[in-house]
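U., I forgot to send this yesterday:
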Amino acid sequence: PSTVIWTERHPDAAAVELADAELLKAFPGVHTHKVHQALPVVPNSQEMTEIDDAVVAAQGGLPGAPPAYLIRGHGAYVWGASLFAAERHMEALVSLLDHALSLLSLEASP
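Result:
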């Protein structure tokens, strides 16, 4: 649910900024938590070609993006060199977004 909630809570965001978290090391090429990665967010569509075009354009503008993207109001797509790697990427992404949403909830509390 956090992959959908994040896009609903930030309806105009083109990307999710992920930074300073040990769990980022779950993504390929990341060797330190001192990193900033931008996860693309693309509009939802019934036409896969529109989603494909949006993903290609978004990732081209975000070099070094993790092997994942969010479709607004739909959820996340991830990939990896193996099924194990793709599962690791999804678990990391969901945990990072859960954490970010929890922090936002705490900040909003009196």
